[in-house]
Every structure is written in C-alpha cells, then in structure tokens.
Specification:
Blueprint (H helix, E strand, L loop, with lengths): L1 E6 L3 H14 L3 E6 L7 H5 L6 H4 L2 H8 L4 E4 L10 H7 L2 E4 L5 E2 L12 E3 H8 L16 E5 L3 H11 L12 H8 L5 E5 L11 H6 L6 E4 L16 H15 L7 E6 L2 E7 L6 E9 L5 E11 L2 E4 L3 E2 L8 E2 L4 E2 L5 E3 L2 E3 L2 H4 L8 H16 L8 H10 L7 H13 L13 H6 L4
Parallel strand pairs: 1-2, 1-4, 2-3, 4-19, 6-14, 7-8, 7-14, 8-10, 9-10
Antiparallel strand pairs: 5-15, 11-12, 12-13, 16-17, 18-19
Helix pairs in contact: 1-4, 1-12
Bound molecules: NADP nicotinamide-adenine-dinucleotide phosphate.
Length: about 425
C-alpha cells in the first residue's frame, strides 16, 4: 500500500489524486488536505464567477473525490494543526499543491494607500473567499486602474464593468454584486508596461470585453505595430491582437464606461491624500531584449481604485527549499526533497490554464511511483486521524462539504447556481448535525 498526502484541493491537487488513482489502483490511499472546509481552490475562488463553464470542471474532481481510496480532509491547516515534518513521517509521499495565493508585491511608492488592492484579494472578494470577503474596495470612481495585461486583469476589468443582468447565471457573491452595482466608474484603465504584441491575454477572454452592455474597449491604433508584423505571432496571440485591432477600428460607442488599453505605460507611483487619487505612469519603450524601459515622460491617471494583477507567489513553508526569485518551492521537476513533491503553481509558478495542471499531476504521480515503490509501511490515514483527533481538530469530510454545497444551492438567488458562504464559521454551521 502507498500512502499519499496532497496539500491543497484545487486543480493541481485533484489532478494529482486522479493520476495516483490511475497509477496505483486499489493499492493507494490519498488524503487531500485543505485549510478551508470547502474543496476546489482556484476553481471556487479564482475562476471568474461569470465563467461557469470553466468552473464546471469541479464535477470531474468530484468523481475522484467520492471514490474509496481518495479522501478530502478539510479545515486542517498545515503549520497550525500539523507540521510538514509530521506529514512526511506519516505518508510515503507528500505533495504540495498549495497554489500561489499571495499577490506579487507592487513595489512602487504609494502601493500601501487605501484603495490599492492586489488581484488575489479583489478576486477573492467577488468570489467569496473567507480571507477577502471583508475587503470593501473603493468603488466610488470615477476612475479605476487595473495594472497588468494578463487574463486576471481582463477578469477584473470585466467584473468592474458588468451590469447586474450580465451577472445572470454567475455565482458572484451577493455582497460583491450589490457593491458593484453601486460603483461609479466611467473609466477603467488597463495598464500594460509593454505593447499589444506582448499581452498575456487569451483570445476568448479578450473578445468578451467587446461584448459588454455598458462598457466599450478603447485601443489607440497608434500603439499597434504594422499589421504585417502579426504574422510572426503564434496563432493564439495573433487572434488576441486581432481583437485589439478590431477595438481600435470601432466607431466611438455611446456607452457609459470606457475600458482604456494604455500600452507602453508603467506605473511608477500611486498618490493621494490618505487614499488613492491618482496613478503616476511613465511612458516606456521596448529595448532589444523586449523589456520595458522608462522614457522619462510621465503623466497621471485619476483613480479611486487600483487593482494590481501582476502575478502571484506561493507562500514559503519554514524548512522547505524555496525559490524566492520565482516565488515558488525550489524543485527538480516536482521533486522538492525526499518524500516531498510540488505540483501546479507551487511547482512551476502562476502560469497556464486549469488544464495545464493535468499533465503536471500525471508527471508527479510517475515520479512518486518510481521513488516509493510498494510503499514503506508508513501509517498514512490512521496516523493522521489519531494526530488530528489528539489535537481536537474538527475535520470536514467530502460528505460534510456536500451538505454545505446543498445549503449554498438552496440559498442561490434566481438563476445563480449557488450563494457561497463567505466565512469558515458559516461553512461549518451548514453541516447537518
Ligand atoms: P500573467 O499572465 O503572468 O500576467 C501578468 C501581467 O502583469 C503581465 O502583463 C505582466 O507584464 C504584468 N506585470 C508583471 N509585473 C509588472 C509590474 N511590476 N508592473 C506592471 N506590469 C507588470 O498573470 P495573471 O494575469 O495573474 O494570470 C496568471 C495565470 O492564470 C495565467 O497563466 C493566466 O492565463 C491564467 N488565467 C487564465 C484565465 C482564463 O483562462 N480565463 C483567467 C485568469 C487567469 P510583462 O509581460 O511585461 O511581464
């Protein structure tokens, strides 16, 4: 028998569990440990609430979760309820699938002012993550600045711009829906420190900005390279740039919100009297290596809200090798140290789509198989249960989660799949006695 513990129940965690099931069949016991009482990590609290088809992948994880040899062990926090050393002592393999929940810091003066928030917090707020439910972002407008030219920046701009009707069918939490409908933005500026050819936005997601009821994307045609230069782009990127060309060619639309793509624009400071009032931006040009270099020309963009969407970092764990520059665990293709592995964003950093984690999970299962053989007779589940019981930890099972989910479905507003509980207490309270 092989005993495997996976820390984190997001896509990387569940794909790894699925891969271990396939690799070892009945000869494995997998425990998926999560600090929240609810599973699915980024699927639940990262993927945008109006992208339900992407969230639907959790049904696949459910199929893995309800099998006999995989368990969800929720409401258990590594570093508080038990240590990584204890887990390594109990299991043949421990897999860190902890994602990258911390924002990469925006290291410019003024980034600590009220009104500046990282995308982890902002996305967590509208998705009902217990850590961020109380955020109260400054939505009084009239300007918002979204820093970054990736898919998260697109999510944030789109969520800020949508009407209540456009959230139909989404599971945006009520507190965010209400607050956003009271928002007073007329301009949402997407700041890209490089140019249209360097965006990290995928075509489908970028195209959605062109179909919003009350917001119109604005691109300055002068920022676009010669159209012939698009031929050198890979096909997906070419499609994205084609969207930008369409936006640039559009007649001005009489919509109340402008989503302005400000390219070659690097934030250098945030200013305001006790709260954000403006972002100071320096014009850039690309050097030979393709990096953005400031030109010395600066200007100010008025804003009440700044959301920085510039990537994420995995929180370190004391004693575990960590690559500080990359913001993830130091590892050799997933191997961190004997008995310890990393997968997903904790292994490779915050890149790729949900599906990228599937091959990651299968690759790590292969390495585990090669390293642990038939298993070393470690205690696994019974050992974990005894340890947690001795510490009075209230474990949440997958069956408990299904009760929580039933209560969330019952509380949904019309047309919405669920109304999420936004505190751990409320989640725990929703279980049947
Ligand atoms: P990302 O794709 O890495 O984009 C980060 C952006 O921030 C880049 O445009 C980057 O510009 C910019 N940036 C970084 N540091 C900066 C700084 N100091 N000042 C100004 N700009 C800075 O990251 P992400 O948007 O957080 O997305 C993370 C991953 O999740 C990506 O793989 C993304 O595709 C995925 N995701 C997918 C979806 C979806 O499929 N619907 C939705 C959300 C996220 P440079 O290029 O110049 O570094």
């Amino acid at each position: 028998m092989r005993h495997i513990a996976i820390i984190g129940s997001g896509p990387a965690g569940y794909y790894t569990a699925e891969a271990c099931q396939k690799a070892f069949g009945a000869e494995v016991r997998v425990d998926i440990i999560d600090r929240l009482p609810v599973p699915f990590g980024l699927i639940r609290t990262g993927v945008a609430p109006d992208h339900q088809s992407i969230k639907g992948v959790s049904r696949r994880y459910e199929a893995v979760a309800v099998t006999d040899n995989v368990r969800f062990v929720g409401n258990v926090t590594l570093g508080k309820d038990l240590s990584i050393e204890e887990l390594i002592g109990l299991y043949d393999a421990v897999v860190l699938a902890t994602g990258a929940p911390n924002d990469r810091p925006l290291e410019i003066p003024g980034s600590e002012l009220p009104g500046v928030t990282g995308s982890a917090a902002f996305v967590g707020w509208y998705n009902g993550h217990p850590d961020h439910a109380a955020l109260a972002p400054a939505l009084d407008g009239p300007g918002a600045v979204v820093i970054g030219n990736g898919n998260v920046a697109l999510d944030v701009a789109r969520i800020l711009a949508k009407t209540e009707a456009e959230f139909g069918g989404s599971d945006i939490v009520n507190h965010a829906l209400t607050a956003l409908q009271g928002a007073r933005f007329d301009t949402i500026t997407l700041l890209g420190r490089r140019g249209p050819h360097q965006i990290a936005m995928t075509p489908k997601e970028l195209g959605e900005l062109g179909e919003l009821a009350r917001a119109a994307p604005i691109v300055d045609a002068a920022d676009l390279p010669q159209v012939e230069e698009d031929a050198a782009l890979e096909p997906g990127q070419r499609k994205s740039v084609t969207h930008l060309r369409h936006f640039a060619a559009r007649e001005a639309e009489a919509k109340p919100i402008r989503i302005v793509f400000d390219f070659f624009a690097m934030p250098v400071a945030i200013e305001g009297d006790g709260k954000v009032e403006r972002v100071i931006v320096e014009r850039t040009a690309l050097d030979e290596s393709g990096a953005a270099r400031g030109t010395g020309e600066t200007y100010a963009i008025p804003a009440s809200l700044v959301v920085s969407c510039i990537g994420y970092r995995t929180p370190p764990i004391p004693g575990i090798p960590y690559d500080d520059r990359a913001g993830r665990f130091a590892n050799d293709e997933g191997r961190v140290m004997p008995g310890l592995y990393a997968v997903g964003w904790a292994r490779r950093g915050p890149t790729g789509t949900i599906g990228t984690n599937r091959p990651d999970g299968f690759a790590i299962a292969e390495k585990i198989a090669a390293d642990i053989g038939e298993g070393a007779g470690k205690q696994g589940r019974p050992g974990l249960d005894a340890l947690l019981q001795s510490r009075g930890v209230e474990v949440v099972t997958f069956r408990d989660w299904q009760q929580i989910e039933t209560a969330e479905i019952a509380a949904a507003r019309d047309g919405s799949p669920r109304e999420k509980f936004t505190s751990v207490e409320a989640m725990l309270g929703a279980r049947n006695p």
